[in-house]
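User: My collaborator and I are trying to settle a disagreement about how two of our proteins should look. Neither of us wants to argue from intuition anymore, so we agreed to look at predicted structures for both before our next call. Could you fold the first one, then the second, and keep them clearly separated?

Assistant: That sounds like a sensible way to settle it. I'll keep them separate. The first protein:
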Amino acid sequence: MESVMHKSGTADPAQPVDGDQPLTLDVLRRLVGNDWARLPGDTLVVLSRDTEGNLYSPFSTYAIGRYSPVYELTGEVYPLESELAADAGLRALFPKVPADARAALVLYPLG
């Protein structure tokens, strides 16, 4: 979700950009390469727990997986097909992956 930036440089999560939609890797690449390219390298990346801006955590790690919505804006993440094919333990944990699961870059907070 892109937020409106105030002159102070802080994001206002209460002011969504018209047409908010899930962020794709193409948009993330544009933001990193253009909009955020001049930010200092030690700028902390922080994740909000929800769209209202309740609680925040520093970005810690990521995974490549598949996402499937369960409710309107929340869902589950599943391993890639190649990971399932190579790991019997994963297949036991995830015996059925929904047909609508799609490739996703999954970001995890530190805490």
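The second protein, kept apart from the first:
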Amino acid sequence: MTTAAQLRKTAGSLPEAVADGGAFTVGGVVFAALADKQAELRLPAAEVAEVLAAHPSATRVRGGVRVPLADINGQQLNHWVRRAWLAHAPEPLAARARAAESAEPGTGDLPRAIGRPATRALADAGITTLDQVAALTEAELLALHGMGPKAMRILREALAETGRSLAG
């Protein structure tokens, strides 16, 4: 079981995602929406079939699938929201995100100790250097799905070692 808050957090954390009422868009195209305690995801047909097979309470809707939030766990929701986003993101943005999926700790000059989820979150946002990290605020970094307190501490320490800090 998951919540509307999780859907909003996940969809809103994706690069260039824009919240518009209960809907989320990328490049001006809706990829996810919240309607009546259900997640509506705009997915390619093959992926709609996967969601329908995994969730008997899911229903096919024009352009995608609708699944009750009570019938999907947070990890599954995160996966399908990201897949919907990838299906509708402009190609250069989607290509960068697909490349980020295989980013390993130590990408660019980022510290290896931040871990795989934080490394991928940063790479997904096009951030591969400490200079790019320093240009952001802590709030901006924590808004990236996969960034947590440990990664933030490690990044702050790495910046401090070179006489830099986060913006703001």
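Some points you might bring to the call about the second protein. The chain has two domains: 4-97, 102-161. Residues 102-161 form one domain.
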